[in-house]
Amino acid sequence: MPKQFKFWNVMKNEEEKSAELILYGSIGSDEYWDDISDKAFKQDIENLGDVENITLHINSPGGSVFSAVAIANILKNHKAKVTANIDGLAASAATIITSACDTVRMPKNALFMIHNPITFAYGNNQEMQKTVQMLDKVKNSIIETYLNKTKTDKETLSELMDNETWMNAEEAKEYGFIDEILDENVEKEVIENKLIINNTAFDISKFKNFKEKKIQEPRVINISVNSTGSPEEIADKFRNILNSTENQKNKGGNMTLEELKNKFPELCNQIFNEGKEAGITKERERMREIDNLDVSNYSELVENAKYNDPVEASVLAVNILNKQKEERIKKLQNIKNDSQNNFTPPVPNNGTAENNEEKKFMGVNISNIFSLMNKKTEEGK
After folding, report:
1. Mind listing the domains of the chain with CATH numbers?
2. Which of 64, 67, 92, 99 is catalytic?
3. Which of 78, 115, 205, 244 does the annotation list as catalytic?
4. What contacts 24+ positions apart, CB below 8 Å, involve 146-151?
5. How would you classify residue 23: left for phi > 0, otherwise alpha for psi between -120 and 50, otherwise beta?
6. 78 is known as an active-site residue
């Protein structure tokens, strides 16, 4: 997330007799780090010399009212035409500066905010009453500055300040705070108590009515890519994680794969590419394991295992064992059939008892033939 950023710069174009001022950050009464200081601003304006046009780029959450009034008076009293561009945010005391400019321009979704002056004080009852009176005078002074710029009456301005009113470009123009709406948008989001606008972060915890949607600090989701998974399987895992997160925030339905691709295109491409590489590596390993098997006599099974009906080497090995078992059973059956087809029955002996007994055993299986032979041997002894 961008850090709170303050920037102060002055650029002069001698040929065009123009100058450009960039005021990004808080407005301070004294020069502190890179705060916008009225003393430094006065010195820089004087150093510009003879210029006819001043363009002021401002992106500020406000700050010291007294410094802002001083800067506004410096601009108002300068002979040059002053154009203010609100590059993201003009809030609180920063609006005093923009109200002193001849022309104020603002992108469609930039922000403009006015509120009552704020101070910190301590002391007894009389001292606190003096502080209240001082704040009332400051508020009236700010309203007078707004009246010189806007087409809004004093009572309306006072109510807007009481309510800490946030405005987009259209609303700010309606009240007369700005003159032109730029047909462009600034990048902005709110994370916790930080408004990040135009790559500059501002602390908005002191503002009570900020109306932009606040989101939580982004969670880092770690996804371990399973090298055995396909890109589709990896995408499913990622989608399940996101759906779980989205449902916790919105209590909504699950995202489809198409919605996932549209919302996170770069991340989806990364997941797909990682899954693709993992799949290629896994496939190469599978082929290598199959090639290491001694399966020279089973080319058809190997062909199917590799391409037609892909399986792991271990599954192919089991299929080959089953095939070998089938072949052994078939071979034994063939031997049995050959033995039965080639059997020669005993020669008949003219109807004797022995002849009748031999006839009784004609056509029986091989095991019974061996039994008959053993019986004859016993009788002959």
Report:
1. 7-203 (3.90.226.10), 231-326 (no CATH), 344-381 (no CATH)
2. 92
3. 115
4. 146/95, 146/99, 146/114, 146/177, 148/99, 149/98, 149/99, 149/100, 149/104, 149/176, 149/177, 150/99, 150/175, 150/176, 150/177, 151/175, 151/176
5. beta
6. no
Q: How many of the other CB atoms lie within 10 Å of CB of 114? A: 28
Q: How many C-alpha atoms does 202 have within 13 Å on its Cβ side?
A: 27
Q: Average per-residue pLDDT in the chain? A: 76
Q: Is 158 labeled as catalytic in the residue annotation?
A: no
**pLDDT of res. 159:** 95
Most confident of 131-145, 236-250, 325-339, 346-360: 131-145
Tokens representing 152?
């809004």
Residue 267 to residue 254: CA distance in whole angstroms:
18
Element (H, E) at 111: strand 111-114
Q: How far is CA 326 from CA 317, 333, 339, in A?
A: 14, 11, 20
For the whole prediction, is pTM greater than 0.70? no
| Beta carbons within 10 angstroms of residue 21's beta carbon | 23
Say what the pLDDT of residue 379 is.
53
Q: Mention every residue, 6+ apart, whose C-beta is less than 8 A from residue 141.
A: 69
Res. 375 pLDDT band, cuts 50 70 90: low
Residue 30 DSSP class: S
